[in-house]
Amino acid sequence: MARIVAGIGSSHVPAIGAALDNGKTEEPYWKRIFSGFEKSQAWMRETKPDVAIIVYNDHASAFSVEMIPTFALGCAAEFPPADEGWGPRPVPVVQGHPALASHIAQSVILDEFDLTICNKMEVDHGMTVPMNLLFGKVEKSGQWPCPVIPLAVNVVMYPPPTGHRCYMLGRAIRKAVESYPEDLKVVIFGTGGLSHQISGPRAGLINSKWDTNFLDNLSKNPQKLIKIPHIDYMREAGAEGIEMVMWLIMRGALDDKVDEVYRFYTVPASNTAVGHIILANRGRGGAARKSRAKPKRSSGKLKRAAARARVDRLRG
Ligand code: DHB
Ligand code: FE
Question: Does 312 have pLDDT greater than 70?
Fold first, then answer.
């Protein structure tokens, strides 16, 4: 059966993609940001997921104010990078996983979450920038390391979904994944944020205290986060801070108790506070397990100790 082994939170600032595409990663401003993801890329190479579900938001690239689904699941075989005004980013076309995606659509819709199904969709920086941060730079002629199932969330036009709805959708996605018969190792990304506002009198707003509190609660006490109303995100984290509700879909898809494998926070990138976290499930098949070939007799206690040891190594 398929299993979600870990959740990854990552900002999606478009200028990070531009810095990568234009060879600026060694400049001090950008190095500060990219170096915060080096350990995460090593973790990703070691974890080797079979599929990544990426919860992200489209910025009027695939959708527009004329038509904007609240939750849209990408069930296509591939997702080309969108032209966001400067031509498509020089990254490979994203390969989908139509079989698992359709299974998730069926399970989640029959669980009464009314997803829009997208059989053709281009993807913008909301998805490709977090992919670069976690998978590293991949030439346009190359291939991303695993297939991806995009889940686009409306956080650009009022009303976005509530944090609670997002969290519950995450739970339904987890149930869907766990009822898929093939033995797949799945990771789920929550992307966007953290605090930022890119226009209006409060442009440039960043609230590090809010962001740190959000990351702490995401790790240890997500029930606190799901009660936060939209107006608090807007007031405290800026108009675009509302993107953070997408991280709650990722968190809802994980165990109640998780191991925080890694965290990184820096201010700013462009107008935005960059936040990143990796949370690993402790259960059977969790990212803490080195491989499926491990002896079955190892107890849950031993597995948790091994997980903690890996977390400590990464933090070190
Ligand atoms: C910026 C941040 C975003 O989340 C986005 O979608 C566009 C721009 C910025 O900080 O420049
Ligand atoms: Fe954005």
Answer: no
Q: Write the CATH number for 203.
A: 3.40.830.10
CA of residue 196 to ligand 1 center, whole Å: 8
194 φ/ψ angles, rounded to the nearest 5 degrees: -80, -130
Of the listed ligands, the closest to the CA of 275 is: 1
pLDDT tens column, 150-204 = 999 999 999 999 999 999 999 999 999 999 999 999 999 999 999 999 999 999 9
Two tokens, residue 131:
């992919």
Beta strand 272-281 with 3-10 is antiparallel
CB 212, CB 201: distance < 8 Å: no
Phi–psi pair at 93, nearest 5 degrees: -60, 140
Ligand 2 centroid – CA 265 distance (Å) = 17
Enclosing domain of residue 22: 3-315
d(CA 254, CA 4): 7
Which residue has the CA at smallest separation from atom 5 of ligand 1?
13
Confirm whether pTM is higher than 0.85.
Answer: yes
Considering its fold, how many domains does the chain have in total? 1
Tell which phi-psi region holds residue 270, choosing left (phi > 0), alpha (psi between -120 and 50) or beta: left
